[in-house]
């Protein structure tokens, strides 16, 4: 019998629900990808570079022009100066960046604190590094972090804390109080931070994005990870990046070179042009997605669902307690098979599910798709 390194890992819930959506011709609000296309300028630029022979390996750490454009964006957004060549590494998607960051710092028997509900890539990466994920459950409806509980979970084996803001799947954003508490624990216990900020440019209702990059003391202990796929509606390109202090970035790159070595060269050049020439796209994302969130909520007003607050990302949580007694996995299967709408059950993001009746919808869809889905949900 083959001895699996990840015996508990199967087909992801995202793949399962998308497959069911296709099978039952349902509206797919499950997997978190935009229904609309990548900006025309970006598509034209990648075509330009492909056609003009920019198709070979880039430097392993990334195309210098793209690194510099990211540094300029960080300066503009967070008033933080970076050494682009030494601190910014381009990766094949944010998931690669998360994996490499965790492999860089986690050793056998180390513990890493993870907040549930959590993106499903964290735990396997920790386990493959020989570590153990220590899960702290956040509770509906507000999903706030109890930092006293966090401190109680810290042991002599604790190596790092993984944070995610804006948060997938709860759509919460970290507060200044959270940052203060995180900073205290990192300083007291000499911990590292893996900060998953792939939705950094999608905060709603004028909520600020409190990036770790804003604080030099936190940045000194952090890997900050972001995604071009989320920002430019091109998730299939698998383009992301990791920012870290020079000594950590150097160690990160040692592993990165043996995972992907380098990332898609034409896309790097195109993304650099996009950031340089059409930066207004980034600035408009929050308003763009807020309109979509508000449209979906408005069309759900007549339903029996309870809408939970969405402060960031392009996700919306619904409590279906008044709709069904099924658990959330069973309800999502019923919803796609019988009602024709695919959603994600929140319990799959927990090590120990709390039993809440909450599902996640993705509103990165065309307006008509959202209206049609809401109409169906209002009939339940």
Automatic annotation (TrEMBL):
The keyword Transferase applies. The keyword Magnesium does not apply. Residues 27-376 form the Aminotransferase class I/classII large domain. InterPro entries: Aminotransferase_I/II_large, Kynurenine-oxoglutarate_AT, PyrdxlP-dep_Trfase, PyrdxlP-dep_Trfase_major, PyrdxlP-dep_Trfase_small. It comes from the Bacteria. Keywords: Aminotransferase, Pyridoxal phosphate, Transferase. Its cofactor is pyridoxal 5'-phosphate. GO terms for molecular function: transaminase activity. Transmembrane segments: none annotated. NCBIfam families: PRK09082.1. This is Methionine aminotransferase. It comes from Pseudoalteromonas marina.
